[in-house]
Every structure is written in C-alpha cells, then in structure tokens.
Amino acid sequence: MDLDPSVLELTLPPRWEAVRAVWDASRSILERSGLADHEAYALAMVAQELLENAVKYGAEEDGITLSVRVGPDRVTVEVRSRMGVDGGNLRAFGDAVRRIRDCPDTFGAYVERLQQAVARAPGPSELGLARIAYEGNCALDFRIDGGTLAVLAVYERGGSG
Amino acid sequence: MTEQVRRWAEGELRLEVRPGAGELRLAWLGRSADREPGRFLLPLLGQLLEECRAAGLRLHLDFTALEYMNSSTFTPIVKTIDGARRAGVSIALEYSQARKWQALSFSALRTFETPDGRVAVLGR
Questions:
Q1: In chain A, which residue's Cα lies nearest the Cα of B74?
Q2: Which of B117, B121, B100 is nearest to A38 (CA)?
C-alpha cells in the first residue's frame, strides 16, 4: 500500500490525551511537505484547536477524524466528529464560524474575543476559532453530513502568512 | 545566598517564581494545553497577585520559553490582567519575538496595555 506523504488521516478516540498525541504527527507531515517552520507550527496549532473543540463538544462515544492535506497551493485541516450538540448549539456554532469567516479583520476579531474573555464564564467561546483565523491565517468553514460535523481550516500557501 | 524559587507543575506546564528587583517573576515553561487551564492557573495567579499587592511588587509573567499554549490558556491570562488592574498591581507580560506564534498572539494582548505602564506587554 502506498501512503501519500502529503496526507495525514487519523481517527482518534474523543479524549483529551488523543489531542496532544497528534501534535508531532501533524507537525511532521507539514514540515516534510516543505512548509516553513512557523507555518507548520501554526497549522499544527490549528489542528489542536479544532480537535479540542471536537472533544469538548462532540459526541462522547464516537471517534474523531483528523485529516491534514497538503497541496501545492493550499493546506486543508479538517476535523470530523459526530455531533454532540443540540440544534440550538449547532446553530450558534454555525453563526460563530460565519462571523469569523466573514470578518475581514482577523486581528480585530481575535482582540474582541480576548476582551470578551475577561468577563466570560467557563464554557464555549469563539477564541479558538478566532485564533485559527488570525494566528493560523486560515479560512474557516463547516459542513454537516447527517449526524457528522466537519470543520475545515484552509491555509493558502504563499499568502500573506 | 540561595535564590528562593517556587515551582508548580500541571500536565506539561511548569511554572517557576523567582523574586526579582521590585517584582515577582513567573516563568512559564513547557506546554499549556489542559482542557481547563483556568482551574490550575486562576488560583495560583490570584495568589501571586495578592502577594504583589501586599508587598508593592510588579507581577512579571515571562512566556519567552513557553513552547505552546492553547486558546483556553488565554482566558486566565486576560482575567489576571484585569484582576491586576482592579487591584492596582503592575503587571508585565514578556514574550519572545523570535517565536512567531508568540509575536502574533501577544501583539493582540497589547490592546490591554495602559498608558501609565501598569499593564505592559513586552517583546524580547
């Protein structure tokens, strides 16, 4: 079986330790694919943030799939998980992704979430998503397929990042 | 004279406090990637803020050697900045400009700086 060296696909148990365990694997494939060190670091961070969200808010009993695909023009980090959120939360999540996706000022969006964090009680926030857009320089999107939520972060190679 | 160093560890994160000239310096080492980092960090940072307030010291948070932190870690940090401001304690956050993730994330924290220097974010 030939393994594509520019694709990483892993299915993980929905546990916190599993998130940490993929750091080295995701960073390694990104570095091997010719990305600069800071780009590989940033995209490994993106994968960690998406996985953390999936563990926190996905279904507790089902696996999470991480895929990192490195192409000549872009890198796509995708995390798929069974939805553990109800309809209201899912709508709120979709709204959060859209707000950040459609905001042209990723720095401003990130600062705004940091300032909101001062008074925020523990629970869901948009800080991780805003960090992906700003620090990871990624465009966010999501898809719902049956009971599965896929969250995508797309990094354009050779862009401003 | 033996330097008085206090150490804590939680997961992959290690914290070391050293007294300095007019300040307490808290070095962040390793990785901060807990699910709820505030459960460990907020009581500790609150305790250090109180020590600084009582002794008239600045709290200096040194992140330059930190390898990684997740977004959940920023919440206890910005809450501590706010707590310092409310308590009248000077606080400085020092980051590494050589680590691009720190340069990006901490430049955003510069929006918390105050004109009087009581809240300072310093790139080294």
A1: A114
A2: B100
Chain centroid offset of residue A48 CA? 7
Give the one of B33, B81, B101 whose C-beta lies nearest to A135's C-beta. B101
- The ipTM (two decimal places) reads 0.92
Cβ–Cβ < 8 Å for A45, A135: yes
Sequence-ordered alpha helix ranges (H) in chain B: 38-55, 71-87, 100-109
What digits encode the pLDDT tens for the residues A23-64? 999 999 999 999 999 999 999 999 999 999 999 888 777 899
Note the pTM of the prediction, 2 decimals: 0.93
Considering only the beta carbons, identify the residue of B38, B101, B108 that sits closest to A114: B108
Query: For the domain B6-123, what is the CATH superfamily, name and number?
Result: STAS domain (3.30.750.24)
Closest CA to A47 of A71, A73, A72, A28: A28
Inter-chain residue contact A38 with B100, CB threshold 8 Å: yes
A20 Cβ under 8 Å from any chain B Cβ = yes
Sign of the alpha-carbon dihedral angle for A82, A109, A45, A6: positive
Chain B contact for A123, CB < 8 A? no
Chain A residue with CA closest to B34: the answer is A16
Distance from CA of A59 to the nearest CA of B (A): 16
Listed in sequence order, the residues at least 6 apart from A144 whose beta carbon sits closer than 8 Å to its beta carbon are A83, A90, A150
Return the domain boundaries, chain B: 6-123
| Chain A residues with beta carbon closer than 8 angstroms to that of B104 | 134-135
List, as one string, the DSSP characters of A59-115.
-SSS-EEEEEEE-SSEEEEEEEEEB-S-HHHHHHHHHHHHHHHT-S-HHHHHHHHHH
Q: Which CATH superfamily is domain A7-156 in?
A: Histidine kinase-like ATPase, C-terminal domain (3.30.565.10)
